[in-house]
From TrEMBL:
Keywords: DNA-binding. SUPFAM superfamilies: Homeodomain-like, Tetracyclin repressor-like, C-terminal domain. It comes from Paractinoplanes globisporus. The lineage of its organism: Bacteria, Bacillati, Actinomycetota, Actinomycetes, Micromonosporales. Signal peptide: none annotated. Residues 32-92 form the HTH tetR-type domain. This is TetR/AcrR family transcriptional regulator. Residues 55-74 bind DNA. The keyword Glycoprotein does not apply.
Length: 237
């Protein structure tokens, strides 16, 4: 951030490059223009001050609305957080399980494409992803359980990809659970530091992380090349 302080005001957050990402494209169009703007504002506020330190006034005033305007569209601040986290988790899961990815028969190329997509998605939506990964404690028990189920499904996708490579002999006899967890961490960790005005594009980070993931699982003679699908910028989910 531009300066260190206990809490950032909405004025402090205006124009900060580290808060620029593609989060506005995540929200369901059926929500309407105002709810989508409120979700985007909440992402920026939660990412900067945390869920508990953010007020409904912060969220609403950033889009030129009165403090009570948020309750016209969402019953509580916690529901706003849940909508952000739910959407992000569902979107990234859908992105890495598209038919074009699932249909890759070669285990090496499949894992490579999977990791490249997962990483580039988190770079493109790094602010919303940061909220989704680090503000889970703000959710109600019921909402947390729903998110946890989606997280388990995502974990299963990666674990299955690594396990298939081990079973077919494409990968070394690695600890599938540990390696898949480490790969997921590589794709997520960037949300703490990534900036859109940095030196690496989401696609470049995706390719780099995919190479690291393969080196965790690879046999010594594995021939690494570019990911087969790339990470098209036009895809938002």
């Amino acid at each position: 951030m531009a300066k260190r302080q206990a809490r950032f005001t909405t004025q402090d957050l205006e124009g900060l490059p580290e808060l620029e990402d593609e989060s506005p494209a995540l929200w369901d169009g059926s929500l309407g223009d105002v709810p989508r703007k409120l979700l985007t504002s909440a992402v920026r506020c939660f990412a900067s001050n945390g869920f508990h330190a953010t007020t409904t006034r912060d969220i609403s005033s950033a889009v030129g609305l009165s403090p009570g305007a948020l309750y016209v569209h969402f019953p509580s601040k916690e529901v706003v957080l849940f909508e952000i986290i739910r959407t992000a988790h569902q979107r990234v899961l859908a992105y890495v399980t598209e038919p074009a990815v699932l249909g890759i028969e070669d285990p090496v190329r499949h894992l490579q494409a999977l990791v490249a997509r997962y990483t580039s998605w988190h770079a493109r939506y790094h602010v919303a992803a940061r909220v989704s990964q680090y503000e889970l404690a703000g959710l109600s028990a019921e909402h947390y359980e729903e998110i946890l189920e989606t997280r388990h499904r995502t974990n299963d996708v990666f674990r299955a990809a690594v396990e298939r490579g081990v079973t077919t002999g494409a990968f070394a006899d690695v600890d599938v659970k540990r390696v898949s967890r480490a790969i997921l961490s590589l794709g997520i960790d960037l949300v703490r530091w990534y900036r859109r005005d940095g030196t690496d594009s989401p696609g470049q980070l995706g390719e780099f992380t995919a190479q690291l993931a393969l080196k965790m699982a690879m046999t010594p003679d594995l021939d690494l090349g570019p990911a087969p699908l790339g990470t098209p910028a036009a895809s938002s989910a």
